[in-house]
């Protein structure tokens, strides 16, 4: 034994090869926490001090290599400031450089995932061999930072600047074949031959067949690009990446600049450039929020895992109601391996559902994600039916008929009589109370809401709505099914609109106030899109459907009349009255024309502007800041109320539901993060000023006022 720690051990083989093994104690994965990095420094020094070694293998005893740095430490580390972060990164550079400067060849044996800092460890080795199912990548830009432990320096020198920019700016994971194709790894082998291949590479390097020193010179010297090549490579990449990343995500462009600035430098100078740029990005609000988003996502997944333990897995599902929504649910279930019955009372509806599923599978084939054979196999997971004949074997039913309480009540009571006593019934409702739908059920403990978002195959969120009599087992089983479908379930309690729609409609109410006072909806859309929303409120209403919005708005007004009821005719109702329902009939706040791909494209419609002006006494100009405040304050306050009312369990779940459910700008972290970024006191003051003019929708809660006075935070 050369070294023994809590996460790292170093042993010597019979032929004098050191084997450094990552195996973090009491964890299922390896990650590079501050303590592990310190151990790595000690372990490498022990290896370097052993003069009789002939090579070093870096390996993992777990099912993954290293998933990256310990992100739970990031907020605490980043608070220490720029100088600390530069010094920290330079220290890690020195540790990784020790691998690169060993007096013998080195090889990394990559299994499972090698991401972020884990990937950067492997880049410091002379050679890399990868298991067939492994993946490698540098996802740091997705956290608002850039690779700070040598990724921006070594990867371009190893695979070329173009490929490195694609890997780093995109932040994606790359499979073994892709890594081999660009030269990021030297060999790909079956996982049971990984260690054998690593030792073979070292043997060939020691005989001179493979030149480890040439590989080191390549990685530690300047990039081989002349001035014209540099300009063509980097300036072209900046333009393309800026268009993809958008103005709110600076890390991808900054990463390209770091590679460019370091291109003509040796290793140490290039690493210093990288360390400084990392520290600069780490102190931005975008980085803080994206790291918080990652931590929230982990917390939500952990909570879902706890719920799942209370239920059982779903082996056979069913959806009631075909059509677009039912077809989308059937597709998602079938594509992830859970067989599903798709029932409707009409044959043409069944065909519509199957057509939707076939279309979605067809797109997977077009993208090369599935073969025709795989598509055919997965389609067999969907069994269309006009009867309840096989429902006795179903573990969970998703009711997805029209959003009408009488129709849903009739369907649910009918199917309950035909399924087993332990079958879970769920309703894909967006507004109707779960307790109301449970009133006529004989086994209300087996019933809950399962609210999918449209389009089902794209939207990651599923709201699992617990009714007053819903059992823990029912919630757990529904959560388990949602996760098996590849969705992120968040459990909420029953109330009008549940969580996401309850929060969204105050945002629409803010829009209605702006329209009533003479605002220009196109200007409002542009401001909110610049703020970071994927579409402005008028455009979003067109996509949702004006009639759907009016129905939900009425539900909200009935449930919360003090702040969500409205007097007179607002702009949304005005559109419905004039048969302008949005994209579904080609006209709403905008008119819609099909583009070359057959997708609806919005265009300005003067008739819509005339209609809005007809109910306004006098047009009024609002500043961008006023628009943002009037739109965001009611949304954020309703999120606070949902936390205070116990509708959602934590700030993390509330923020992730908004990001996954309605496209809240991820770089802003969610509504609660947005309040905290504004400062609770400043936010309360702004809300009070608006409430004086606009009423209770903008009034802070008493608890929020107290939190602002006492300096309390939602997030620790």
From TrEMBL:
Keywords: Fatty acid metabolism, Isomerase, Lipid degradation, Lipid metabolism, Lyase, Multifunctional enzyme, NAD, Oxidoreductase. Its EC number is 4.2.1.17. It holds the Pfam family 3HCDH. The keyword Lyase applies. Residues 317-495 form the 3-hydroxyacyl-CoA dehydrogenase NAD binding domain. SUPFAM superfamilies: 6-phosphogluconate dehydrogenase C-terminal domain-like (SSF48179), ClpP/crotonase (SSF52096), NAD(P)-binding Rossmann-fold domains (SSF51735). InterPro entries: 3-OHacyl-CoA_DH_CS, 3-OHacyl-CoA_DH_NAD-bd, 3HC_DH_C, 6-PGluconate_DH-like_C_sf, ClpP/crotonase-like_dom_sf, Enoyl-CoA_hyd/isom_CS, Enoyl-CoA_hydra/iso, FA_oxidation_alpha_subunit. This is enoyl-CoA hydratase. It comes from Aidingimonas halophila. The lineage of its organism: Bacteria, Pseudomonadati, Pseudomonadota, Gammaproteobacteria, Oceanospirillales.
């Amino acid at each position: 034994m050369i070294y023994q720690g809590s996460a790292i051990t170093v042993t010597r083989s019979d032929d004098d090869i050191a084997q450094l093994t990552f195996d973090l104690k009491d964890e299922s994965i390896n990650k590079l926490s501050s303590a592990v990095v310190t151990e790595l420094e000690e372990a490498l020094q022990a290896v370097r001090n052993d003069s009789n070694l002939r090579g070093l293998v870096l390996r993992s005893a777990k099912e993954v290599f290293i998933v990256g740095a310990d992100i739970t430490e990031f907020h605490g580390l980043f608070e220490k400031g720029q100088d600390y972060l530069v010094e920290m990164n330079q220290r890690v550079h020195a540790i990784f450089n020790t691998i690169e400067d060993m007096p013998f060849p080195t090889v990394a044996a990559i299994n499972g995932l090698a991401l972020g800092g884990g990937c950067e460890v492997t880049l410091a080795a002379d050679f890399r061999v990868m298991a067939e199912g492994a993946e490698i990548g540098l996802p740091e830009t997705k956290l608002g930072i850039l690779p700070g432990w040598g990724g921006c320096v070594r990867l371009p020198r190893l695979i070329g600047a173009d490929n490195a920019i694609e890997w780093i700016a995109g932040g994606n994971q790359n499979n073994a074949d892709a890594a081999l194709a660009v030269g990021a790894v030297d060999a790909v082998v079956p996982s049971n031959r990984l260690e054998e291949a690593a030792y073979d590479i070292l043997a060939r390097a020691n005989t001179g067949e493979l030149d480890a020193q040439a590989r080191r010179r390549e990685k530690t010297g300047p990039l081989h690009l002349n001035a014209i090549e540099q300009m063509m490579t980097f300036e072209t990449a900046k333009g393309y990446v800026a268009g993809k990343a958008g103005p709110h995500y600076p890390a991808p462009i900054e990463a390209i600049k770091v590679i460019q600035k370091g291109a003509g430098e040796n290793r140490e100078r290039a690493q210093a450039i990288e360390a400084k740029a990392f520290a600069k990005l780490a102190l931005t609000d975008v980085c803080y929020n994206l790291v918080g988003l990652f931590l929230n996502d982990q917390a939500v997944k952990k909570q879902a895992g706890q719920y799942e333990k209370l239920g059982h897995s779903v082996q056979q599902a069913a959806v009631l109601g075909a059509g677009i929504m039912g077809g989308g649910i059937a597709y998602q279930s079938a594509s992830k391996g859970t067989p599903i019955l798709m029932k409707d009372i009409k044959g043409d509806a069944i065909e519509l559902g199957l057509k939707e599923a076939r279309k979605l599978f067809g797109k997977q084939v077009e993208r090369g994600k599935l073969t025709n054979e795989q598509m055919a196999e997965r389609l067999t997971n969907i069994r269309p039916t006009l009867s309840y004949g096989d429902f006795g074997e179903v573990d969970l039913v998703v009711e997805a008929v029209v959003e009408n309480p009488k129709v849903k009540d009739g369907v649910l009571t009918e199917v309950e009589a035909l399924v087993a006593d332990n079958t879970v019934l769920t309703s894909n409702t967006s507004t109707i109370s779960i307790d109301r739908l449970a009133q006529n059920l004989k086994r209300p403990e087996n019933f809950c809401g399962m609210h999918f978002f449209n389009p089902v195959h794209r939207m990651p969120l599923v709201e699992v709505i617990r009714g007053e009599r819903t059992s823990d087992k029912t919630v757990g089983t529904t959560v388990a099914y949602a996760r098996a479908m590849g969705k992120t379930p968040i459990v909420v309690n029953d109330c009008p609109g549940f969580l996401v729609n309850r929060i969204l409609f105050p945002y629409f109410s803010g829009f209605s106030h702006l329209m009533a006072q003479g605002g220009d909806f196109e200007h409002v859309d542009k401001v909110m899109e610049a703020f970071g929303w994927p579409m402005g409120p008028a455009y979003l209403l067109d996509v949702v459907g004006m009639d759907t919005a009016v129905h939900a708005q009425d539900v909200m007004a009935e449930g919360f009349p003090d702040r969500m009821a409205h007097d007179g005719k607002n702009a949304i109702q005005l559109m419905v009255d004039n048969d302008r329902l949005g994209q579904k009939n080609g006209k709403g706040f905008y008119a819609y024309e099909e583009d070359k791909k057959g997708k609806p494209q919005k265009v300005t419609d003067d008739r819509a502007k005339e209609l809005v002006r007809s109910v306004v006494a006098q047009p009024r100009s609002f500043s961008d800041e006023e628009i943002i405040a009037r739109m965001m304050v009611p949304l954020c306050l309703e999120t606070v109320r949902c936390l205070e009312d116990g509708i959602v369990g934590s700030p993390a779940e509330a923020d992730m539901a908004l990001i996954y459910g309605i496209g809240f700008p991820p770089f802003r972290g969610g509504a609660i993060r947005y309040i905290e970024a504004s400062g609770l006191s400043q936010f309360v003051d702004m809300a009070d000023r608006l409430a004086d003019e606009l009423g209770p929708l903008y009034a802070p809660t008493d608890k929020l006022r107290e939190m602002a006075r006492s300096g309390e935070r939602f997030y620790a």
